[in-house]
Amino acid sequence: MSETLKQLRGIFVSLRLTVVLLALSIVLIFWATLDQVNLGIWAVQQKFFHSFLVWVKLGSLQVPVYPGGYLIGGLLLANLISAHVYRFKAGWRKSGIWIAHAGLILLLIGQLVTGLVQKESVMRLDEGETKNYAESSRFNELAIIDVTDPKVDAVVAIPESLLASGTVIQNPKLPFKVVPRGYFPNTDIAMRSQAPAAAPSVVTQGIGLQVTTSPVDVTYKEDARNMPAAYVELVGPDGSLGTWDVSLWFNPEFAPGPFLGVPQKFDFGGRTWKLVMRPTRTYEPYSVTLEKFSHDIYPGTDIPKNFSSKVRINPPGGGEGREVLIYMNNPLRYAGLTYYQQSFDPNTDKTTILEVVSNPSWLVPYISCGAITLGLLIQFMIHLVGFARKRRSA
Amino acid sequence: MTRRLPLLITLGAAVCFLLGLYPGWVQQPAAVTAFGRLPVLSEGRFKPLDSVARSTLLQIQGKQTIILPDKDQTEVTPDEWLLDVLFMPEKADDYPIFYIDDPDLISLVGKSEANLSIHRHSFKELVPHLGEIEAQMKLAEPVADQSRTHFQSSVVQLYGNLSHYLRLRRAIVPEGSTDFLSELLQLQGDLVDGIEAVRLKEAGKPHDEAKAKAIIDEGQKFVAMAESTDLLAIPPDEGDPDPFAWHNAGHALLETFGKGDVNPSVLAYAGMAYAWRNHVPDKFEHIVDLYGASLEKHFPRQVKKARIETIFNAAMPFYAGMWIYLGAFLFAILSWVKWPEASRKTAWGLVALGWVLATAGILTRMWLEGRPPVTNLYSSALFIGWGSVGLCLVLEAIYKNAIGTAAAGMIGFATLIIAHHLALSGDTLEMMRAVLDSNFWLGTHVVVVATGYASTFLSGALAIIYIMRGVFTRSLDKATADALARMVYGIVCFATLFSFVGTVLGGIWADQSWGRFWGWDPKENGALIIVIWNALILHARWGGMVKQRGLMCLAVFGNIVTSWSYFGTNMLGIGLHSYGWTQAAFWWLSGFVATQLVIIAIGNTPLEKWRSFRAGPAA
Asked: Which of B232, B500, B511 sits opposite A300 (nearest CB)?
């Protein structure tokens, strides 16, 4: 082996590298924690932890200034594995360290996988309501729905990201093309009648004619939602059908008044179509009914004591459903998903908000942490026994 | 004699503490104490009126007793104060209790430069300025907590304290009523005719207008009372299945019109009001005893808890422990300079006494709450102190060199003084919010994490002793230095294990409640940083990158890391764990970090400059 390679190997298996990486990770976490005040937790995770480098804006330039979570975590993993491969010696004196580090490797890999595959959405249910889908609290989609048949809706959902990229969309289920003419990740609206001086927009059809849509800064607040809007032109074989404003503000769930919540419909090719911007949906083969929501407070105060939702799971193809009580610290795990009591509508006290999480690797932390704990215990007990023996003989 | 001295000093301290419990030493009549023991439902839990009085006074004026500015400096106990607030408000309004330290706010309430040093004001002095205070409060309230100026937070706080006071003032006797008992007896007498008159009036038939008006006036008074207090002092009727169905006095009185009888508990309180106002001590005592006995019959559990809590309040085991730890620390230091054996043993005895008091106090709190030891920031400070001191006792039992007791005194005193200040924000046995309401996880995750914090602080404290003794004294010989190094190393191992396991248990709790094992929440990050820091110390030691002195400096930096995780993350005001925190704490934290940095700098002076090592360095 050449000298340089040996040196490189020496660095890679060294404890010095471990200490440097640990120090780097402390600074990274500390910085990320402080930055949450500005960015919110989700954006901080993307910037600091789910990244190889942390980029910072200097003037108008984005400059990488610090190693990100993937880089530090990856190097730690490499350091850990190579050190163990290189220095492996069988024997019980180091057994605790081996077990702890094996657990740590599993934990790092498990968290990487979780970061990549975990999906979170919410299910908002009024008492008595049944739903077979959960909605994203961050992403939205444009749904184009064929509502001709009152019994069945045929839906084509276009993710927000596609609208943002400006890609022209042609889908075999649609007799027209969808041409994005503008996209705004967060907006404010006002009635056009209230703002006579507003510039004219490209909109030619629908409710969008009566409002003005103005872009605003994207929000990172935990409790706020971005309200995206897009201008889409629908183009049939014989030319344009017009341009619509599709905005989350027109969704009945978010609309500031009933007037704006009226669905935008039009007829084309002998069928009736509906355009609606909505939180991205994930459908499940079964449905969930909220039977009752309860919200208890401590007497004489407004401190919440407990929230709970009694729900019924209706399996696919009918059949006997089962009733489950979801409450704080007691989620429902069903069909690979976990339903947690997240929140409720304080205005009515009759609407529950359940968080729906899909995380196939949820068991990994339990196993790896068990291994690390066991390893540390063994190792420190070995130290302790040695120490006690030495003192007794001294 | 010298051989017995340590024991005598320890026993002396214990006797002093026990004497404080002796009823004869309390400066209030037995009937007043008995009144303080009456249970009520307030802030979601049953507690004695004594606790209501104490936590309100702590919140409003920062201490539990009132010293009147008369020439005798008369002391008013919390129970006497509460009696005056409830039953003789015109007297209570003169007590100087509202603490104001913001100069702008002091001038707002009409004080000149000359008496700026008077920080406590009576309600009567503030009454003419209520309008301005409310106007300023409304301006300040929309500003987020962290970005309020000192004046803004002061005015919001003062307004909160004033309304708290007013809610108590109207809890049992309506505003302006000087003879509530006669009023109620009159009502009881006129009730049947009066209700009939109201019924006729509503039906538009001929009626006795005076009688109808009297009843309606009373009813309106009760509505005002029911709406203006949150003290649920009146127990549910006999046979009510819900033990939490306590009412406030106004609410209970409104039921008079439906039931045809004035609530007997309200009558009992009105009787106490009469006797207290008219200075008839034997009558007062009689009514309190009768009412207490009837409560005991129907609510034996609540009465028992209230009694124990009152004794606990008066004993103040943590306050006493604070001074005992300080004494222990001084004796431990003394043992390195003079009288090594006697001082060391005295320090040991005092630490043990303080720890026993803290243990008893924490156990009492757990029994009162029916919860694991750590439920909020206050109890975490108590527990971290308790855990560190416990570990120190083990170290001292092994090494017998007063290092364990010095560290115990230092940490015990510091954590209890922090707890003492945390108690100023109100009831420390407050109810748990739904999301935290899980005895299992509070008992595992929180306790283990707090133990991890405690041990990290302990290693830092031991390292400070190493540096200070090594640099400034000649007392750090090789044996002591090696012993300290072994202690710090051992405690860091312990801290790594506990902070890691605690953090992981937190992750599992989060997975159980919120659906994610890890969410990069500030408090989680803080805990993780402690784990990584401890791991870093161990790896640096194993890799030979640091020796004794380096280990000590790293351990001192552990104090900074831990205090940031413990307090600093709360100051960010984000995330699921944040408790809400004040600006004052920020300056204390910065000050603490600065002192630790100075100590690290001292530790980095060349070894030949260390007084202990001038003869020849040990490390």
From this structure: B232
Same-domain status, B421 and B471: no
Q: What ipTM was reported for this prediction?
A: 0.82
Measure the N-to-C terminal CA separation of chain A; round to a whole number of Å: 47
In the sheet that holds A239-247, the strands lie side by side as A177-184, A229-236, A239-247
Give the Cβ contact number of residue B251 at 10 Å: 19
| Best CA proximity match to B99, nearest among B143, B162, B169 | B162
Closest CA in chain B for residue A369: B504
Position B540 scores a pLDDT of: 93
pLDDT score, position B577? 42
Name the one residue in this structure whose structure tokens are 């919140």: B59
B574, closest residue in chain A (CA to CA): A37
Look up residue B234 and give its DSSP letter: B
Is the same domain home to B221 and B366? Answer: no
Chain A CB within 8 Å of residue B228 CB:
no
Shared domain for B208 and B162, answered yes or no, is: no
Whole-number mean pLDDT of chain A? 85
Tell me, yes or no, if B376 comes closer than 8 A to chain A by beta carbon. no
Cα separation of the two ends of chain B? 40
Lowest mean pLDDT among A42-46, A265-269, B553-557, B615-619: B615-619
Question: Which string of DSSP letters, residue by residue, matches A93-148?
Answer: GGHHHHHHHHHHHHHHHHHHHHHHH-EEEEEEEETT-EEEEEEEEEEEEEEEEE-S
pLDDT higher than 70, residue B575: no
A300 touches chain B (CB under 8 A): yes
CB contact under 8 Å between B515 and A357, yes or no, is: yes
And the tokens for B180?
A: 């509530």
B585 token code pair: 């704490």
Q: What domain range is B266 assigned to?
A: 180-279
Q: How many domains does chain B have?
A: 4
- Partner A contacted by B546 (CB < 8 A): no
- Which residue type sits at B335? S
Domain shared by B395 and B468, yes or no = no
My answer on whether B162 and B187 are in the same domain is no
